[in-house]
Amino acid sequence: MINKAYKYRIYPTEEQKVTLAKTFGCVRFVYNTALKAKTDAWSNEQRNMTYVQTSALLTEIKAKEEFIWLNEVSSVPLQQSLRNLQSAFKNFFDKCASYPKFKSKHDTYQSAKYVNTAYTFRDGVLKLAKDKEPLDVRWSRQLPKAAKLTSITISKDSSNRYFVSIQVEDEVAKKKPLTTAIGIDLGVESFLATSNGDKVKSINVFRKSQAKLAKEQRRLAKKVKGSGGYQRAKLKVAKVHTKIADVRKDFLHKLSTKLINENQVICLEDLRISNMVKNRRLSKVISDQGWFEFTRQLQYKADWYGRQVVFVDPFYPSSKRCFECGHVAQRLPLNIRKWTCSACNHEHDRDINASKNILAAGLAVLANGANVRRNPTNVELSNSQ
Ligand SMILES: [Zn+2]
User: Fold this and answer.
1) pLDDT score of 274
2) C-alpha 267 to ligand 1 mean position (Å)
3) Whether residue 65 lies in the annotated active site
4) Nearest Cα to 188, choosing from 87, 271, 69, 96?
5) Active site includes 185?
């Protein structure tokens, strides 16, 4: 059994929009209150607050006159936000994520999660328990018939689009095992290079949309803050941003699916502990390129289909080592894209040579039976394909 999510656009009624806005606000408030309480408990008394304790805190707050408005929305998403906070802390302690941050109403993504006591799903009709009308869902792809719904998450992005992400438990047929293995070097010049000698170009969707973005930003700058024109211009800027994010996500999904379909073992560098992340300029490139999202997709798809992702220590000199003879070059500045090995005279493409070394190192890790999995809990599965 695996957890999978199916995401659909929804078109809430005006009444539903009001309820959702209230719910998002309450979810945020509860999350932030519990985050502050947990942080204080730790920094003042070195005490760890459990989920049960944050839940008791919520009950206490809801009984207070000044927070009576918390009772106007479904209590389920409020409880769920405490669970999300708990997962965020677990990921932090497992070193899979940074310290949880406070949520703001200006965040580009607002969401509320409902478990099955808070909604009904019958004959293809999805309805929140407290709503009069069902949700208007655009069923853009089919929900698997045998799938068991575990929860739904309703979200709104900065372009004011609403979505429902339906989490299901599903049987996934493992793919037929292959004998192929591939090494991948994530690059700055191209998105990636493989040990098969292929290169995949970055999509540069940002660069393409930059002119449009700059135009909308100039318009926004001329508006009076808070005016109607300002709000409309701001929404236009947000729409360019979400378009960029959508195109990038689609690119990453297609690429990760292709690699998983064609290879049994995929080896790449562990970016989490890479020095590159500490370099501010490079870490901007890494986030622009979507490397973390890409490795996350590779991992969960590998889990679904019975493939293996192996992470290689980034301090292994994958670029400077000649794959043909093992000689390690003294210096190889980032701008050198092709080099000739001084020991065996082999001419290398920097990134292809690196990916071949990564493959060899990954296979060595596998042969030694080292623990190569990392396992963030409760990963966002929205948009999974
Ligand atoms: Zn050599």
Assistant:
1) 57
2) 22
3) no
4) 271
5) yes
Tell me the CA–centroid distance for residue 325 and ligand 1, in Å: 4
Whether 311 and 269 have beta carbons less than 8 Å apart is answered as yes
Task: Output the pLDDT for position 112.
Answer: 96
pLDDT above 90 (res 26): yes
Task: Tell me the CA distances in angstroms from 174 to 179, 266, 307, one per residue in order.
Answer: 15, 16, 9
Helices 291-305 + 228-262 axis angle, to 10: 50
**Ligand 1 center–CA 335 separation, angstroms:** 20
Question: Choosing from 133, 189, 250, 269, which is the catalytic residue?
Answer: 269
Give distance in angstroms: CA of 369 to centre of ligand 1.
29
Q: Is residue 166 predicted with pLDDT exceeding 50?
A: yes
pLDDT in tens, 308-362: 999 988 778 888 999 999 999 988 887 888 999 999 999 999 999 999 999 999 9
Ligand 1 centroid–CA 186 distance in Å is 22
The strand ranges marked E within the chain are 2-10, 110-115, 119-122, 125-128, 148-156, 162-170, 181-186, 192-194, 199-200, 265-269, 308-312, 338-340, 347-349
Per the annotation, the verdict on 60 as an active-site residue is no
What distance lies between CA 43 and its chain's CA centroid? 29
Block residue for tokens 């090494």: 183
Q: Distance between CA atoms of 226 and 55, rounded to whole angstroms? A: 37
- Cα–Cα distance between 379 and 385 in angstroms, integer? 14
Average pLDDT over residues 364-380: 56
- Catalytic: which of 185, 303, 313, 380? 185
Q: How far is the CA of 221 from the centre of ligand 1 (A)?
A: 56
**CA–CA separation, 102 and 35 (whole Å):** 7
Determine the Cα–Cα distance for residues 72 and 21; give it in Å rounded to an integer. Answer: 12
